[in-house]
Specification:
Number of strands of chain A: 13
Largest sheet of chain B: 5 strands, parallel
CATH architecture of chain A: Orthogonal Bundle
Order of helices and strands of chain A: EEEHHHHHHEEHEEEHEEHHHEEEHHHH
Strand order of the largest sheet of chain B: 2-1-3-4-5
Number of strands of chain B: 5
CATH class of the largest domain in chain B: Alpha Beta
Shape of chain B: globular
Strand content of chain B: 5-15%
CATH architecture of the largest domain in chain B: 3-Layer(aba) Sandwich
CATH class of chain A: Mainly Alpha
Distance between the termini of chain A: 50 Å
CATH superfamily of chain A: Cytochrome-c3 Hydrogenase, chain B
Oligomer: heterodimer
Distance between the termini of chain B: 70 Å
Strand content of chain A: 15-25%
Strand order of the largest sheet of chain A: 1-2-3
Shape of chain A: globular
CATH superfamily of the largest domain in chain B: NADH:ubiquinone oxidoreductase-like, 20kDa subunit
CATH topology of chain A: Cytochrome-c3 Hydrogenase, chain B
Structural class of chain A: alpha+beta
CATH topology of the largest domain in chain B: Rossmann fold
Number of helices of chain B: 12
Largest interface: A-B, 72 and 64 residues
Number of domains of chain A: 1
Helix content of chain A: 40-55%
Largest sheet of chain A: 3 strands, antiparallel
Radius of gyration of chain A: 21 Å
Order of helices and strands of chain B: EHHEEHEHHEHHHHHHH
Number of helices of chain A: 15
Amino acid sequence: MNDDKRSGEIHVPVLARVEGEGGLEIRVREGRLETLKLRIFEPPRLFEKLLEGRGAQEVIDGVARICGICPVAYQMTAVAALEAILGITPSPWVTRMRRVMYCGEWLQSHALHIHLLAAPDFLGFDSAPAMATRYPDEVRRGLRLQGLGNAIMQTFGGRSVHPVGVCPGGFFRAPDAAAIAALRARLEASRAESLALIDWVAGLPLPEDDQDFASVSLRHPGDYPITAGRIVSDRGLDIPVEAFERHVKEFQVPHSTALHALLDGRPYLVGPLARLNNNLDRLPDALRERLAANGIRFPSRNMFHSIVARAVEMHLALDEALRLIEDYAPAAAPHAETTPRAGTGVGCTEAPRGILWHRYALDARGLVESARIVPPTSQNQARMEEDLAAALTRFGLDRDDDALRLHGEMVIRNYDPCISCATHFLDFRADRG
Amino acid sequence: MITPHRRPRIAVHKFSSCDGCQLAFLNLGEPLLALAEHVDILHFAEAGPVDESAEADIAFIEGSVATSTDAARLRGIRERSRYLVTIGACATAGGLQALRNLADGQAWIEGVYASPEDIDLMADSTPIARTVRVDLELWGCPVNGEQVLGAAQALLAGHLPYVDHAAVCTECKRRQAVCVMVAQGTPCLGPVTGTGCGALCPRWQRGCYACYGPAVQANAAALASYLADSGMPPDEIARRLLFINNQAPAFHDAGRDWQARVIQRSGDEETP
């Protein structure tokens, strides 16, 4: 390209190292970005319809199948919504152990994203196995931490993909003391590794690209938000989870099978960077100091700092799990008894990729009349397109196709889009009313 | 045939799914790196390599056939692959999303999309074997990672692996798990469901919900009658059979039978 008024199109038919199927289309005319489309063509699976007529346990087991990478997030959000209808307040033991199990998913999902999906970009490799030839110790450390997250989920649910342990009111079974003791030993032995990971990730050559966006996350009175809280933003939003639908509107665009979402008419960010931006004061002091020592300032407006936020949250999750299973004893009654009841309930938790929101209406037999599920990736879609347009323009539209394609993919990976879950469906016509 | 002259080639393809069965590879940990040292992974979009048109010794397929372009893509993969292996419930039986096959799928799409004409989705979600010849089917939602790795090793050595399709009951006995149905009266689909999970649900104090598909010689009708005799309403029997593997013939046929009884009964009730 010998002048800067380039014209042309770039198509990335299949995005690599993302979960699910998506592509990117860019059209440049006379040096200016004319159109940009993040295509999501993952076929819809119509979960909100197939859940109709199903019972509470079927919902918990069913929604796990929306996403193989974050099934626990789906189960925990659903069970919170269902318990709101059934009038159940889980016991303190159940509340603690759910948070432990959820920490396992954060560890697993973030470790997978950092090592298998994102880090190869910054170090110039096309995959984790390729990166492992130059960085064998770092990749192996990452796979061990991922395995540790899986071990936490297996302790509570038998397996890490679509675990079987969660029921309305708690868990089917309490792990025995020996299983928790073994887990605690592994967690303690891994603390140094998750701390070292923060330093390694903060030292990666991350691009500078500050942008203006709203960070949206949960916020809890005492804890770093995972399983509960109010929905807040750094622009002054502070609402109970029940008010979500009054502020967030979803709409369909022709190039995507996932719906786009806007908060009060504007794109917004959910996920690790938004969570950390909004909850720095909820980090333990030692962890906040460790982060500061690495010289990356939070709150951050640079989406490339998402990978640092993930590493911070991995250590936080590991330490939280350790803290919560200190003095562990199996509960005599790992779940409260439930009886069917009609009503409508809402649940919202922090999935690894950001807030995940569910609403169910049950009939008097406890069967689903209607379901609505709003996953994090569909909330991030509008922000991703906004980011891509700004980031690629700043990067330089005169760059060659390969460079633009690679940079576009890096930008998209910051959001860790989980396209399998992004394809969710709701009664759109009802929302217009 | 695998020759000493080149490394074996593997591809992992995704159709309509949750991505959970691909995690059978991505959750392997150290063995994933070992695998990558001994084989060429030519296509595995979630892990990095993208070469959809690559010729492979083994193509692993996750997900069901769901869109108008899936069948052609799948036939191409079949032509370029020596062995084709389905991993998981979606690829092997159509998946949970195949519940739309039992409903008015178009109405479901119209119920959730403002512009249904922009959505490319077949009325039915179908298993891979409905479109192309499959050399090996691995059941499970999710598939068992050790089973996948074992299958890869067996196929690369030139033979089909042995896959145990005995009932979950057999697995409970092997593991000395107390029967939840006999001891606690908890309804369990273990007697008609193939093992592979390690009898997880009974060991977690709950009934099996059949995520590994039908066991060999599964008699789902007999189990359904037993559940009815023990007080389970017909609609719940139908729902249990028509869940993760609703298109597997043994579950589909018995489940539809009990679903018809519900419709029959509610019809009777409407008649004065």
